[in-house]
Amino acid sequence: MERSDWLTAVVVILVAVLLLGSGPLAGGLLQPSGTPTTLGDGDVEVGVVDVSTTEFVLTPGRFGTAVTYLRVPDAAVQLASVTDRPRLVYRVQVPALGVDRTVSTVVTDRGQHRLHLRAQALEPGTVEEDEYTGTVRVRVQSFSTDRTLYRQDVTIEVKR
């Protein structure tokens, strides 16, 4: 066997091992530890849910673009206890703008968890009013649980 053939065989074997070790059949053996990726059963006991409703804002894009951005604060959820692997879901809806954004994370430990939604660009000409009304929800979901931890209507100011 020539050296280039041997090197090719080693590379192919390494790639196969990495793909198999990080795939669903191996249960994601090469996933970072402590990072749950699959939803389980379970529930949480909530200490505090904090969403700074005054930080919701629509701002113009920079550099003269006609794009407006919806910027939302993080949701900070303090968990007193967690059983199994439920997920926290942070959802922001602004029906008048056609916005329905969601982010979720599977949790296994008590303590503080932050859920972050990046700013969303809106089509030029979409924002015509001076303020909009939106709804913010934080939920816990699992195979056995689906309940709202926090729900609040928010007024979203348009900065021009």
Task: Explain this structure.
By secondary structure, the protein is mainly β. The protein has 2 domains: 1-31; 42-158, Sandwich (Immunoglobulin-like). Helices cover 12% and strands 48% of the residues. Strands 6-5-9-10-2-3-8 form a 7-stranded mixed β-sheet, with no helix packed on it. It has a 3-stranded antiparallel β-sheet with strand order 1-4-7, with no helix packed on it. Strand 2 and strand 3 form a beta hairpin.
Q: Roughly what is the average pLDDT, rounded to an integer?
A: 86
Let me know the number of strands: 10
CATH class descriptor of the largest domain: Mainly Beta
Q: So, CATH architecture of the largest domain?
A: Sandwich
Instruction: Tell me roughly what share of residues is in helical segments.
Output: 10-25%
Descriptive labels:
160 residues; mainly beta; Immunoglobulin-like; 7-stranded mixed sheet; 3-stranded antiparallel sheet; 1 helix; flat
SSE inventory with pairings:
Elements: H1 3-22, E1 42-51, E2 57-60, E3 68-71, E4 75-84, E5 87-94, E6 99-106, E7 111-115, E8 120-122, E9 131-141, E10 146-158
Short description:
The chain has one helix at residues 3-22; strands at residues 42-51, 57-60, 68-71, 75-84, 87-94, 99-106, 111-115, 120-122, 131-141, 146-158.
